[in-house]
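Narrative of activities, Objective 1.

The group set out to show that a structural description can be obtained from nothing but a protein's sequence at a throughput compatible with the screening campaign. Below is one input-output pair from the validation batch, recorded exactly as produced.
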Amino acid sequence: MPLYEHVYLARQDLSAQQVEDMTTQFKGVIEGLGGKVGKTEYWGLKSLSFRIRKNRKAHITLMNVDAAPAAINEVERQQRLNEDVLRFMTVRVEELEDGPSAMMRKSDRDERERGERERGGRGPRREREGRGREEEAIVGETETVGE
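Output recorded for this entry:
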């Protein structure tokens, strides 16, 4: 069966539990039609680039799906009818990712950097500033030697 990555955005005024319940419902539809849901990732309540139906934020969920196209069509049909779903997108992929998705890896990295800054560690901005001064010194030396 084909492999898909399916992402949907839910309204901001829903609770995380309600979003999980919707994910379970969509997962049940896929499994009822003979498919499998490999993993689901709740990416959290994120700010949107632009308003969608008067919402500035949305709950975002990713589902890795191994199912027939008919199952995907049925889930998308149900999401079109559901007023709590703002947008959805399904992409067919050659293989599904093992481990956390790029969004989850990014949030882990952000949390680590935030923790380092709170402990007084050098953040990436300080490192960049230091490198810039060294490069300026090297450039300055070569210009005076060349004259």
